[in-house]
Design goal:
The chain has helices spanning 2-6, 21-27, 43-50, 52-55, 69-87, 111-156, 158-180, and strands spanning 11-16, 32-37, 58-61, 100-102, 203-209. It is of the alpha/beta class and 214 residues long. The protein folds into two domains: 7-138 and 202-209, P-loop containing nucleotide triphosphate hydrolases (Rossmann fold); 139-176, no CATH class. Strands 1-5-2-3-4 form a five-stranded parallel sheet, with helices on both faces. The protein is globular, with a radius of gyration of 22 Å.
Amino acid sequence: MTVLEAAGYDVVLVETVGVGQSEVTVAGMVDTFLFLTLARTGDQLQGIKKGILEIADVIAVNKADGDREQEARSAARELAGALRLVRGQPRDGAGWSPPVVTCSGLTGARVDEVWEQVLAHRTHLGEDGLARKRAEQQLDFTWALVRDELDQRLRQSPAVRAVRDEIRSAVLAGGAGRAAGGRPDPGGVRRPAGAGRRRPGADAVGLTDHSSPS
């Protein structure tokens, strides 16, 4: 994304393959997250299970053409209902309610409406909201770097390697229950209880594509 921005692109589309965790990662990198789906795929339920509906800013049901148009509209209504179930309505009336629209990539019908909703979300954020969102994403990215660095240091630590097998055996033997509460496990290791990335500049739209060829 940084390279594309440096190349002069003012809009960057990031597409995922729709397997779950990648959507969450992309949502932490972009300004607007677009969930693209199809009718008769059960995505209203899959979206709830994977948490996609909780992070989607715009939802579009593709292939709303020919004899599938009515199915697409029905799917849009189901997704709208699932969205209300998961996220509810903004209490103050000022929050963003993700729109659910239909479109056809084959004929181009209502594709412009999908993009208008993306722009509407950007307008809703405003300059202050956009800056705040990107700052929060940068903070999350920074902590992710910290976690990755700590993970690498632990993996490469001679002291950790020396007790790794012992701790593994203790956990497999049932020591994880005591360790999870912050108490020493049989290996003598104490584990505390409870124990993307954004860049300034170009607009970024995350597109998770759950559609597939006919």
